[in-house]
Write a structure and sequence with these properties.
Layout (H helix, E strand, L loop, with lengths): L2 E3 L10 H10 L5 H22 L3 E2 L2 E2 L8 H9 L9 E3 L6 E3 L2 E2 L11 H11 L7 E3 L1 H6 L2 E2 L13 H17 L4 E5 L9 H18 L3 E5 L7 H8 L6 E5 L6 H8 L5 E7 L9 H15 L4 E5 L18 H5 L4 H15 L5 H16 L6 H8 L12 H12 L16 H11 L5 H22 L16 H4 L3 E4 L6 E4 L2 E3 L3 E7 L6 H8 L7 E5 L1 H6 L2 E2 L5 H21 L4 E5 L14 H16 L7 E6 L8 H6 L4 E4 L9 H5 L7 E4 L12 H12 L20 H25 L1
Parallel strand pairs: 1-2, 1-13, 3-7, 6-8, 7-9, 9-10, 10-11, 11-12, 12-13, 17-19, 18-20, 20-21, 21-22, 22-23
Antiparallel strand pairs: 4-5, 14-17, 15-16
Length: 744
């Protein structure tokens, strides 16, 4: 065995699974239709792996037990008319999301979902021997949370003895089906773990040892270095054949491997980046692999990806319009499979000289290309390091100045930015891009859509309006298309959650803003209403974290360049008469390094980048920001340090976890709008339910700083869901205004 892929994108090269899921949810196709699309995609991926000469392919099986049909499964993930969805949060520091398991002392685990075994058999019937991948038992428990009504201090690892018998049943069935390898993903080993948490790994695998007898077992880690104590625990696990490491984001693990890797074990060396789209430097990787070969032995070294390829785009073959030079610098999932195989063959003495030579030429071309470097931009970004770029006046004085100008009621209502993107709207954008309609026709259609959204918000009596973003395909791609240093794909889709896919832009060079990006649409929208209209921008940290970022300079340098471009846009919006400007930093928390020792440096440059964007505006210009779907409690002081006038923040889907920070005494003086309902669910909350949420907020936040808004943008919802939900939201705010007034 010489090569291994940790995981592969599941949506399909042209998002086939996305469209099948949405068709099923809309009742337009059956469960059988959905299963067929998924089966056909799996079959095609397995065949591709097999043809590429990959020894092991690992489809990801996030098995959690329980008799779950599609109806229950999707209700848990999306909610339904009567039950809210389970909490969704980011998978480590990626833009992929997972549903957080809810556990308690009385939980009863059962083995009723045979997905891992059925899909192993499905591949075997096609003549492909795969490696079933299960989320490891300790990581499963560590990423869970106490269920509602269970003490927050409940020790989740106390359930280990209850869950291991289920793992034993799955293992036994996989063995009986003929599996010879099995992979457990234990990525929590890269976190800062306490000794009792590390002991849980030792206990779990000792308990599973007899069940695993006769199987080859991989324990896979990814996304960062494995700390020395965890490395020792991991490599001492009983019954384990091999260990997988991310040697891209965990380069320091190399030192531990060189000094402490156990003899006789397989090393799965993750030298091909699973989280970016740059072609591997094959010569450099080969040097690393040869040094490892000297430590573990030729027959025990397996070339692997650093993590699942789920986090990268699918196949460059679907990008015929991508610039040829830039394309030569890239490798999507399908190309990374080829890279892994080429490295494995080179180690075995069958080096493809032509392939390695072409790769070296592409690496050299990227280093020397004049389109990568802009000296003026580099100079401007370097000059930023001498100041902290704070606004001159403190936030309470600014809020007073803004209130005099805006004259908003208490508990002002707003939405986050986007409104539903209808089929008709997408058609208009598509036809304009394909030059099937003129610019004049396009502008007319978009203005009509904005007018419709403005009128709807006025009819609903929302206080601070948005234009609905009908001209935007994606909150990052839209800006990237108008900035220099960015390239774009036609089909570079990456799954974010459920059927939702994003198409990250590629930052290949220095970033600058050739001309204004949003001023035309924002001023058009403001001319349609007397109410304040928010200018809508995506912040520099989010543009960075939701792009495929160049890997030839530190991330913070690229972020400072983007911040300068957004600063120019903010100041142009202010000059054009826009008095409320929202700079979304939805992904600020997502970029936080997994290890605490690295937090301060990241938060320093990330928060600084945000402040750069708006440090030059007047006190009367209100700066909003928005954050979503992450655990914010541990970075609340950095959020305060961003010095925004108003922050809207996801709250309802995470069971109002955010409010606990304020209960614990954190003082927040700026405006804040914790989301009052979950927009990722089709469920419409009642006025009473929303009023109850607002009351919970009023218990810990001052009345004069609280805003009322949904959790996130409304782009993915239908108008039939949006109208009644917003109606109830406004009604709840008015109800509480009346109650507060009468209480005086």
């Amino acid at each position: 065995m010489a090569s291994h892929i940790v995981g592969y994108p599941r949506m399909g090269p042209k998002r086939e699974l996305k469209f099948a899921l949405e068709s099923f949810w809309d009742g337009k196709s059956s469960a059988e239709d959905l299963e067929k699309v998924a089966t056909d995609l799996r079959s095609s991926i397995w065949k591709q792996m097999s043809d590429a000469g990959i020894g092991i392919f690992s489809p990801r099986y996030n098995w959690t037990g329980g008799e779950i049909g599609f109806s229950t499964y999707f209700s848990m993930a999306r909610g339904n008319a009567s039950v809210p969805a389970m909490e969704m949060t980011k998978w480590f520091d990626t833009n992929y999301h997972f549903i957080v398991p809810e556990l308690g002392p009385d939980v009863k685990f059962s083995y009723a979902s045979h997905k891992a075994v059925n899909e192993y058999k499905e591949a075997k019937a096609l003549g492909v021997d795969t490696v079933p991948v299960l989320i490891g038992p300790v990581t499963y428990l560590l990423l869970s949370k106490p269920a509602k009504g269970v003490e927050k201090t409940f020790p989740l690892l106390s359930l280990l003895d209850k869950i291991l018998p289920i793992y034993k049943e799955v293992i036994a069935e996989l063995k009986a089906a003929g599996a010879s390898w099995i992979q457990f993903d234990e990525p929590t080993l890269v976190l800062d773990l306490e000794s009792h948490q590390l002991e849980a790994f030792t206990k779990a695998y000792a308990e599973l040892q007899s069940s695993l007898s006769g199987l080859n077992v991989i324990v896979e880690t990814y996304f960062a270095d494995v700390p020395a104590p965890a490395f020792k625990t991991l490599t001492s696990l009983t019954g384990v054949t091999g260990f997988g490491f991310d040697l891209i984001r965990g380069a320091q693990t190399l030192d531990l491997i060189k000094s402490e890797f156990p003899s006789g074990k397989y090393l799965f060396a993750g030298v091909v980046d699973g989280r970016n789209i740059w072609a591997n430097d094959l010569d450099a990787s080969l040097v690393t692999l040869k040094s490892l070969e000297g430590i573990v032995g030729k027959d025990k070294l397996v070339v692997s990806t650093s993590c699942s390829l789920l986090h990268t785009a699918v196949d460059l073959v679907n990008e015929p319009k991508l610039d040829t030079e830039i394309k030569s610098w890239l490798a999507f999932a399908a190309q990374k499979v080829v890279e892994v195989n080429a490295l494995a063959k080179a180690l075995a003495g069958q080096k493809d000289e032509a392939f390695f030579s072409a790769n070296a030429a592409a690496q050299a071309s990227r280093k020397s290309s004049p389109r990568v470097t802009n000296e003026a931009v580099q100079k401007a970004a370097a000059a930023l390091k001498g100041s902290d770029h704070r606004r001159a006046t403190n936030v309470s004085a600014r809020l007073d100045a803004q209130q005099k100008k805006l004259n908003l009621p208490i508990l002002p209502t707003t939405t986050i930015g986007s409104f539903p993107q209808t089929i008709e709207l997408r058609r208009v954008r598509r036809e304009y891009k394909a030059k099937k309609i003129s610019e004049e026709e396009y502008i007319k259609s978009i203005k009509e859509e904005i007018n419709k959204v403005v009128k709807l918000q006025e009819d609903l009596d929302i206080d601070v309006l948005v234009h609905g973003e009908p001209e935007r395909n994606d909150m990052v791609e839209y800006f990237g298309e108008q900035l220099s240093g960015f390239a774009f794909t036609a089909n570079g889709w990456v799954q974010s959650y459920g059927s939702r896919c994003v198409k990250p832009p590629i930052i290949y060079g220095d970033v600058s803003r050739p001309k204004p990006m949003t001023v035309f649409w924002s001023t058009a929208a403001q001319s349609m209403t007397k109410r304040p209209m928010k200018g809508m921008l995506t912040g520099p940290v989010t543009i960075l974290n939701w792009s495929f970022v160049r890997n030839d300079q530190p991330r913070f340098e690229t972020c400072y360049q983007i911040a300068l471009a957004i600063k120019e846009e903010v100041e142009d919006l202010e000059k054009a008469g826009i008095t409320v400007i929202q700079i979304d930093e939805a992904a600020l928390r997502e970029g936080l390094p997994l290890r605490k020792a690295e937090h301060a440096f990241y938060l320093d440059w990330a928060v600084h980048s945000f402040r750069i964007t708006n440090c030059g505006v007047q006190d009367t210009t209100q700066i909003h920001t928005h954050m979503c779907y992450s655990n914010f409690n541990d970075i609340i002081h950095s959020i305060i340090n961003m010095d925004a006038d108003v922050i809207t923040i996801e709250n309802s889907r995470s069971d109002e976890k955010l409010l606990s920070v304020f209960r614990e005494g954190v003082k927040y003086g700026a405006g804040i709008g914790p989301g009052v309902y979950d927009i990722h669910s089709p469920r419409i909350p009642s006025t009473e339910e929303i009023a109850d949420r607002i009351n919970k907020m009023l218990a810990v936040l001052e009345t004069n700083i609280l805003w009322v808004n949904p959790d996130c943008g409304l782009k993915t919802r239908k108008y039939t869901e949006v109208k009644p939900a917003l109606e109830n939201m406004v009604a709840a705010a008015k109800l509480l205004r009346t109650q507060l007034a009468s209480a005086k």
